[in-house]
Amino acid sequence: MVEPDLAQNWSVAADGQTWTLGLRQGVSFSNGDAFNCYQIWAQWYTTAWIDGFPGNFMAGYNVLNFTGVNFSASTVNMMNGTGIIKPSSQLLSIMSNTSLPIYCTSAYTLVIHTKAPFEFLPNILVQFTGVIVDSQFIVNNGGFGTPATGNNPNFNNVIVPGTGPYIMTKYVPNSYEEFVQNTNYWGANLTAAQIATNPYVDPGHYKTIFVFGKTDDLVRYTDLSTGAAQIATIFAQDWPLIQQNPTKYGAASIPNQSMIIEGVGMNTLRYPTNITLVRQAIVHAINYTNLGQSVFFGDYAPLVGPEYAAFSQFYDLGNLPPYSYNLTLAMADMKASGVNTATLQPLAFDIVAGCGVCISGAQVIQADLGAIGIPVSVNVIPATELTVPYVSGYNSFALDVNYSQQLAQFTWMGYPSYAPNEPTPADAWVAFVNNQNPGGGDYALYGNPTVQACVNSFFSTTNVTQQIGLCTTANQRIYNDAPYIWLASPKLAFASGSVAYDKSAIKSFLMDTSFTGESTTAILNTVVPAS
Fold first, then answer.
1. How many CB atoms lie within 10 A of CB 66?
2. Rounded to whole angstroms, how far apart are CA atoms 207 and 183?
3. What is the pLDDT along the chain (531 residues), one digit of tens a residue?
């Protein structure tokens, strides 16, 4: 469920394409700059302009028609001073132009016009797109960037004002951040009942919070165990220490029906994973129970992709069973494939350094596939190689296809898991099986007209019956083609570890509701002390 924050309310016209958002009034950024529709307009258009309309705006959801949008450096030049908050008549005429896909009808009314009905628009405003910054501050301090130069890197180390319950007062790169409660936060006087309705607007319970960046897992556990820290991210190597002491430690847990996936994409364009029988053999050669116990510490739920289990209306259409461990069937499929395993060169499984669950999971899969004669080489690569020509899924489908014969046969989905770009039922389809995606995510280089019809239906109709019909057919096709090894929906926030806390100090906290991995710790204002 989408709850209001900086947008108090919204409505959609009968055409299903025109959304009107009423913005919260009286809100200011931490430096005193006013929040209004013009701030959002400037941020969104500048971001899309830098990326090349539409580029990857709204995380690849191509729902807006930017054809004819005249936005350039001259538009940005009008914004200096207080030009965004209090636009000149010339700039205001542009911001209020109703022929644009995004425009302001007043300082506190934002209108978004989609090029086709898209019922999940509010969902995509609670993620990356909806993170609103002080555009006036950015423009006055060097600007967002340009299409030629990309995003302005100067803001990597500059604290940009926000509207939230905490203000970052100090930032030491690769060391720590200091947050102080925002006494001018718009929600400072919310009632307990209002906060209960939407806990994410809580004004917070601590005056000052420090977040330290420490890369060594044992150091983080030591800080937690000695009281130097009250909350810490703990990964696989030290997770048993948390499990063994449930009276002292609690941990963030993910529901079975979540939006987080553990899986492996198989390169459907490179030999031998371009052979359907080989992929079918692979998905039946894996001992999922053993992998779940040894890699996910037993905290997982079986999965049938591509949909996230959280969206029950679109999940596992056709009621298909999860792929099962069946060594006899796997060996029969390999024999039928015609592949001579005796002369087969090792298949590449490239894993990014530092991803413990990816490495341990790949090693289990390597051993399981060895039982049916498929040799696998697990290669640990630096983060700089998380792109072509090494692994797929991190660039556009079109670019990845150009390197299909060099890209590894196996790619782990995400780091350490895959979570949605945007929390909508369309997201998994858009990412994993969409051969028209400019934003990446198709780790298997997979797509066909049957499946694409399902993908496209989310952006062409609001008829759920029609969408489910198309996606049911597509789900069966994907299941039979087996482009992905759907491993599990992990319950631990980081699959083989989670965010742990000292129960004597902390009562509870919330994580990102869509489990995107944007935050590796608790959402600060939701941290409740034990007493």
1. 19
2. 10
3. 788 899 999 999 998 999 999 999 999 999 999 999 999 999 999 999 998 988 878 887 889 999 989 999 999 999 999 999 999 999 999 999 999 999 999 999 999 999 999 999 999 998 888 889 999 999 999 999 999 999 999 898 899 999 999 999 999 988 999 999 999 999 999 999 999 999 999 999 999 999 999 999 999 999 999 999 999 999 999 999 999 999 999 999 888 888 989 999 999 999 999 999 999 999 999 999 999 999 999 999 999 999 999 999 999 999 999 999 999 999 999 999 999 999 999 999 999 998 999 999 999 999 999 999 999 999 999 999 999 999 999 998 999 999 999 999 999 998 888 988 888 999 999 999 998 877 789 999 999 999 999 999 999 888 999 999 999 999 999 999 999 999 999 999 889 999 999 999 999 999 876 666 556 678 999 999 998
Position 53, amino acid: F
Q: How many Cβ atoms are within 10 Å of 12's Cβ, its own excluded?
A: 18
State both tokens at 317: 């259409």
Q: Are strands 410-412 and 347-352 parallel, antiparallel or unpaired?
A: parallel
Reduced to 3 states, what is the DSSP secondary structure of residue 486?
strand
Task: Find residue 20's DSSP bridge partners.
Answer: 11, 111
- Strands in 249-251's sheet, in edge-to-edge order, are 231-234, 498-502, 249-251
- CA-based nearest residue to 306, from 361, 362, 263: 263
The 3-state DSSP composition of the chain as helix, strand, coil percent (nearest 5) reads 30, 20, 50
**Which residues are CB-contacts of 340 (< 8 A; sequence separation ≥ 6)?**
none
The Cα–Cα gap between 130 and 121 comes to: 11
Burial label for 509, CB within 10 Å (0-12, 13-18, 19+), is buried
The set of residues, in sequence order, having a beta carbon less than 8 Å from that of 332 and lying 6+ positions away, is: none
Residue written as tokens 């302001």? Answer: 104
Q: Which long-range contacts (CB under 8 A, 24 or more apart) does 337-341 make?
A: 337/272, 337/275, 337/277, 337/278, 337/281, 339/272, 339/275, 339/278, 341/372, 341/373, 341/374, 341/375
Question: How far apart are alpha carbons 335 and 476 in whole angstroms?
Answer: 24
What are the strands, taking DSSP E only, across 96-198?
Answer: 102-106, 109-113, 145-146, 150-151, 166-172, 176-181
- Angle between helix 276-285 and 327-337 (nearest 10): 160
Buried b / exposed e along 464-492 (16+ C-beta atoms within 10 A)? eeebbebbbbbbeebbebbbbbbbbbbbb
Amino acid at 289: T
pTM for this prediction = 0.90
